[in-house]
Write a structure and sequence with these properties.
By secondary structure, the chain is mainly β. It has strands at about 10-15, 25-30, 45-50, 55-60, 70, 75-80. A 6-stranded mixed beta sheet has the order 2-5-6-1-3-4, with no helix packed on it. The radius of gyration is 14 Å and the shape is globular. Bound molecules: zinc ion.
Length: about 80
């Protein structure tokens, strides 16, 4: 079997530093692995986001534009940028 045949393209959003003050109560958690999919109820969408600070790939449950997440790798806050 060829490994090349298993290559998939996934959409990854870039992120940016939040502007202004961030309300700690409105910061969401991100995830390392996508297998948490079934555990969250809501109206958001799962997206891969690259942390603007450390460049790691984060999996987030994104519920609204401008939502702030804290990177589980470097601890900086980021906002997914819609494209
Ligand atoms: Zn980071």
């Amino acid at each position: 079997m060829s490994l090349e045949a298993k290559t998939k393209t996934i959409e990854v959003l870039v992120s940016k530093k939040p502007e202004g003050e961030v309300d700690p109560n409105k910061v969401s958690k991100d995830f390392n692995a996508p297998d948490a999919n079934a555990e969250v109820e809501g109206h958001g969408i799962w997206r891969w986001v690259e942390c603007w600070h450390c460049g790691s790939m984060r999996h987030v449950y994104w519920e609204y534009p401008g939502e702030v997440f804290t990177c589980g790798n470097c601890g900086y806050d980021y906002v997914p940028v819609s494209i």
